[in-house]
Specification:
Layout lengths: L2 H13 L13 H18 L9 H13 L5 H8 L15 H8 L8 E5 L2 E10 L3 E9 L11 E2 L5 E2 L5 E8 L2 E2 L13 E6 L5 E7 L14 E10 L6 E8 L5 E3 L3 E5 L2 E10 L4 E9 L5 H5 L1 E7 L7 E10 L2 E8 L8 E9 L21 E12 L2
Antiparallel strand pairs: 1-2, 2-3, 3-9, 4-5, 6-7, 6-10, 8-9, 10-11, 12-14, 13-14, 14-15, 15-18, 16-19, 17-18, 19-20
Protein name: DUF4179 domain-containing protein
Organism: Paenibacillus jilunlii
InterPro entries: DUF4179, DUF5643
């Protein structure tokens, strides 16, 4: 963004009526989704190359102008600052439409929790919970750390290793109890905990999803709780412990369409559809006849798109076998950018690269994406409330 565009936006913001965000009640869902359409456009724009102001004076002037307007246009100021690449939180710089929406809608909390060992500090920066996903960000600070907070490094010998200060383990408890309590004692139904690196190498974004949609007597997370996060870092003896308060901040819309389709020895059923401004969640059952391709059954995934053809990015997919050729699937994706009238769920299986075709790496196309084989007829169209 150049000076002229920034000044133009700020002039427009002055003309706008100052409004406070209303509670996220069901009756306001349409207006919230309308705002997400703008976020989608902003997100696409962020992927384009931007020019940084060529002079330090220009940077200082833009930031000073923004600070001066804080007292006058607080909500608008946040939107203006998001356009500057060096300003903003970990969530809004993530390639995650739901986290960007949480920032834009003012739903993010600040846990204010940190722990320090051997000169390294980990702090919980942001958190948001919509009943489906608890997302929280972690930042690392310290001297002499060359590696990223997440991932592995390739050594000179070609072998993978973790550098000092990289996350080696993570576990959580909810209100002081382990996740096993929410899984009805089944290891294969444990809530899903995952993490990825943020835009900056010293940051990470975690996601915790319960297993209550897998069709057994598992328990959902409470609407409000305290998460205890224990993180191990490579090369550091003592674990880091962070306390993250979580409170559900959305009122989700839930539908139980119970739609079933059959095709060539397969069947797919959509039992439940739940969505908020932060996530879209589907409960599915996939079945295959006994003489079907077992490898394809094990490698089946699902694609969700709206009537404009926009595919929703997957956040997590948990599965639980109910029989040898039947499994329950809990699929969590990003929210839709613009409230659609219809969603389409398509089943596909990936092709493996290995000659035995039973395990190994996925075969990829010319763009580096896994090759998908869509299962003819295994497609569900569902109207969205």
């Amino acid at each position: 963004m150049n000076n002229e565009n920034l000044e133009k936006q700020l002039r427009e913001l002055r003309k706008a009526n100052k409004q406070e965000l209303p509670p996220l009640l069901r009756t306001r869902q349409d207006s919230i989704y309308a705002s997400l359409a703008t976020i989608v456009q902003d997100s696409a724009g962020k992927k384009k190359k931007r020019k940084i102001y060529p002079k330090i004076a220009a940077i200082a002037a833009a930031i000073l102008l923004s600070v001066m307007l804080t007292a006058i246009y607080p909500p608008a100021l946040a939107n203006a600052l998001k356009q500057l690449p060096w300003v903003g939180g970990i969530f809004e710089r993530a390639d995650d439409l739901g986290l960007q929406a949480a920032q834009s809608l003012g739903l993010i909390s600040r846990p204010n929790s940190s722990d320090t060992h051997e000169g390294i500090t980990l702090s919980a920066e942001e958190a948001v919970f919509d009943g489906n996903r608890l997302a929280f960000s972690v930042k690392r600070e310290g001297e002499g750390l060359g590696g990223k907070l997440t991932g592995v490094t390739v050594g000179p010998d070609g072998k993978l290793f973790q550098e000092k200060g990289t996350i080696s383990s993570a576990k959580v408890m909810i209100d002081g109890v382990p996740l096993e309590v929410f899984a009805d004692g089944r290891w294969d139904a444990l809530p899903s905990l995952s993490w990825i690196g943020g835009k900056e190498g010293n940051t990470a974004i975690f996601a915790l999803v319960d297993s209550s949609n897998l069709g057994i007597s598992t328990k959902p997370f409470p609407d409000q709780f305290v998460l205890t996060l224990t993180i191990g870092l490579e090369g550091i003896d003592e674990p880091f412990i962070l306390q993250i308060p979580a409170r559900r901040v959305t009122e989700n819309i839930i539908d139980n369409p119970d739609i079933r389709v059959q095709a060539d020895g397969w069947s797919l059923t959509l039992q439940k559809l739940e969505y908020s401004p932060l996530t879209t969640r589907l409960s599915l059952t996939l079945e295959q006849e006994a003489d079907g391709d077992r490898t394809a059954f094990n490698l089946t995934g699902f694609e969700v798109k709206d009537e404009q053809g926009l595919v929703l990015e997957n956040i997590s997919q948990s599965e639980l076998l109910s029989s040898d050729r039947s499994r329950n699937v809990d699929l969590l994706t990003e929210p839709f950018g613009k409230h659609p009238n219809m969603l389409t769920i398509r089943a596909y299986y990936n092709e493996l690269k290995g000659p035995e075709k039973k395990h190994g790496l996925f075969k990829t196309d010319s763009t580096g994406n896994p090759v998908k084989h869509y299962i003819d007829g295994l497609e569900i169209k569902v109207a969205v409330q």
